[in-house]
Amino acid sequence: MAPANHLSFREVVVMNNANNSRFAPLALAALLGTPLAQADSLVVSNWDGYMAPETTDNFEKVSGTRIVTDIHATNEEIMAKVLASGGAGFDVLFVSSPTAEILHKKGLLADIEPAKVPNLKNLYPEASKLEYDPGNHFSVPYAWGTTGICYRADKLAKAPTSWNDLLKPDEAVKGKVTLLATDRWLMAAGFLANGWSVNDSNPEHIKAVRTQLIKTRGQLLGFDDTTFHAKLVSGQAYMAQAWDGWCNYGTAENPQVKFVVPKEGSDLWVDTMVVLKSSQHRDKALAFINFILDPKNHIWVVENVDYKVPNKAAMAAVDPALLAQFPNLTTPPSALLKFQQLRDVGDATRAAYAETVKEVIKGD
Fold first, then answer.
1. What is the DSSP string of 237-294?
2. Which end of the chain has fewer beta carbons closer than 10 Å to its terminal beta carbon, N or C?
3. What is the DSSP annotation of 58-108?
4. Same structural domain for residues 128 and 45?
5. Number of H helices, E strands in the chain
6. How would you classify the pairing of strands 239-243 and 140-152?
């Protein structure tokens, strides 16, 4: 599925582990530098392997504009760079929706001008109804999905149905379960198990989730953002909290690896494209986003990253065999929007989440 002589996002994940994970721990060493933009080039910052390798060359051929690619490992890393520089040196960023929301609140994002992005017409109607940016005024969705339980169907007596199957594992699976280590998703598992919002800021709820996760910690194989699918394939793990697309990496190797959204519901995560207000090349930046939204370009994400895209025209062109192999790719937008959309929760709550997760994982 990957283009010749190129590692797909899935292969990058498998080979390079946390340093190239879109949800990896903060890469502190990369915080201070910003790319050196050239007069006629666009600087695009993205996760490694998250865009077709030929995209930059093809865009230059049709537009005459050179792309300089900057790689970030996490939302936190690129946000720190942008906040330190006021956005100088960057034109287009690929970031998750809460980060886009934060940057917008800080006045750092340019408006998306629909007349300059005519391929917005290719998006599902639901893609313009996202709570953090209804109407796509400052961001354009690139990929979206949800979180649930990835599990070995042949190793369990019955399929998991609840977040509590992970948080309160029975004897048969103790030591065979992994949870995500990233703040928003680890906290979300606890919130959802209690019927609370994934954006909960109630200190008592945060405390209750901390208590539960500390109890759970001793019954886990571990906290794992990047190799849980490999552990499922090998049989080292039987269940894992997982992003839907990443579960597909395990299914690709062993069809007994399945994905389910628990009965309590889940989150809707969205990765977006945004343009910096400081960009000296806004029209070219919008032209680049328009280029990505061309179905023949956007479909690459589905075929190589195994993620759904909010591009109706691109999804309509996906090989039915791929959809059959990875059933979660067929989740309709109407179903996705029923999940709880991840939002910016503010500085104080973000800090509370981070401190809680640190205590849970490190045992402080």
1. -SEEEEEHHHHHHHHHH-TTEEEE--TT--EEEEEEEEEBTT-S-HHHHHHHHHHHTS
2. C
3. HHHHHH--EEEEEE-SSHHHHHHHHHHHTTTT-SEEEEEHHHHHHHHHTT-
4. yes
5. 15, 10
6. antiparallel
Same domain, 292 and 174: no
Confidence of residue 120 (pLDDT cuts 50, 70, 90): very high
pLDDT, tens digit, 9 for 90 and up, residues 301-344: 999 999 999 999 999 999 999 999 999 999 999 999 999 999 99
Cβ atoms of residues 130 and 138 within 8 Å: no
For residues 226 and 135, the answer to whether their CB atoms sit within 8 Å is no
Q: Are residues 349 and 211 in the same domain?
A: yes
* CB-based contacts of 197, cutoff 8 Å, min separation 6: 191, 340
Amino acid, res. 308? K
pTM (2 d.p.): 0.89
Number of domains in the chain: 2
> Residue 40: which pLDDT band, with cuts at 50, 70 and 90?
confident
Same-domain status, 166 and 102: no
Helices (H), 86-182: 97-105, 164-167
CA atoms within 13 A on the CB side of 61: 5
d(CA 212, CA 360): 9
Same domain membership, residue 295 and residue 178? no
Whether 206 maps to a domain, the answer reads yes
For residues 237 and 133, state if they share a domain: no
Q: How far apart are CA 47 and CA 245, in angstroms?
A: 15
What local confidence, expressed as pLDDT, does residue 364 receive? 55
Q: Given 3-state DSSP classes, what are the helix, strand and coil percentages for the chain, each rounded to the nearest 5?
A: 45, 15, 40
Structural domain that includes position 209: 145-267+343-362
CATH number of the domain within which 231 lies: 3.40.190.10
Question: Do 256 and 246 form a contact (C-beta atoms < 8 A)?
Answer: no
Q: Answer yes or no: is 2 within a domain.
A: no
CA 42 to chain centre: 23
